[in-house]
Design goal:
With 270 residues, the protein is of the alpha+beta class. It has nine helices and twelve strands. It folds into two domains: 152 residues, Ribosomal Protein S5, domain 2 (2-Layer Sandwich); 107 residues, Alpha-Beta Plaits (2-Layer Sandwich). A hairpin with a 3-residue loop joins strand 7 and strand 8.
Length: 270
């Protein structure tokens, strides 16, 4: 079985307050893009995980694909499995690639072994892997609250629009991102704002991480502004960064002449 875990982008991200459990209360609209990793899942005599493409730092035991298999094996009698990940989505870029990989292992195993696990149960299991993981169980546009795991589907169709993703290799750690945050004192209602015309989103839909991160890394603000100059309808940083994305009515041009070593993706939204 071969599946394609997608990258996501955040349309707005409100950081409301720090919770008693140490996490932050968030609100964001999450949508998938057409940029994907490639994941192969097959029955096997022995458990094996292999990986090609972009190099993933750290040890294999920390990979969410392996953790997803182990979580499911704890609750269900599944056989050993061969998992191969072709990594295309850059890591630590605010695109949720690792979370998508882990979630898609769960959904692939559920289908491969006919486990008949409900979507709600899969989301519960996925939440143990990470805050973004439950979103990828269905990958439909959703309003995410709590740590990002409290999901509700929203009516949003971006089919026919183009997206450009640009990551120039700046690493922004989670601690760095949250240390500079100013909490949203009067957060906008994203579930309502997302229904207004896309051309007006830039006036109302914000990513709270941008305020401090753009001060530290002004090049990211410059990239966002350049997207608007080339007629992006909406542009923002995804998650806690550092990927900048733009949504366009017409296919945008490449920015790699300015950033030859960057990761860039241009494709249609689904």
């Amino acid at each position: 079985m071969i599946v394609f875990p997608p990258a996501k982008i955040n349309l707005g991200l409100n950081v409301l307050h720090k919770r008693k459990d140490g996490y932050h209360e968030l609100e964001s609209v999450m949508v998938k893009t057409s940029l994907t990793d490639i994941l192969e899942v097959l029955p096997s005599e022995n458990f094996e995980f292999t990986q090609t493409g972009l190099t993933i730092p750290g040890e294999n035991k920390d990979n969410l694909c392996i953790k997803a298999f182990q979580l499911l094996k704890e609750e269900f009698d599944i056989p050993n499995t061969y998992i191969h990940l072709r990594k295309i989505i850059p890591m630590g870029a605010g695109l949720g690639g690792g979370s998508a990989d882990g979630a898609f292992v769960l959904t692939a195993l559920n289908e491969l072994y006919d486990l008949k696990i409900t979507q709600k149960k899969l989301e519960e299991i996925a939440s143990k892997l990470g805050s973004d993981c439950p979103f990828f169980i269905s990958s439909k546009p959703q309003l995410a609250k709590g740590r990002g795991e409290v999901l509700s589907e929203i009516n949003l169709n971006l089919k026919g629009y183009y997206v450009k993703l640009l990551n120039i290799g700046i690493h922004i750690g989670t601690k760095e991102a949250y240390d500079g945050i100013n909490f949203s004192t009067k957060p906008n209602n994203l579930s309502e704002l997302i229904q207004i015309p896309i051309s007006t989103w830039k006036e109302f839909i914000k990513n709270d991480f941008e305020t401090s991160i753009f001060i530290t890394y002004p090049i990211l603000s410059d990239i966002k502004n350049s997207f608007y100059k080339e007629e992006a309808l909406y542009a923002a940083m995804s998650g806690s960064g550092s990927t900048i994305f733009g949504i366009y009515k017409n296919k945008p041009t490449s920015s790699l002449s300015k950033f030859p070593d960057a990761f860039e993706y241009i494709g249609e939204m689904e």
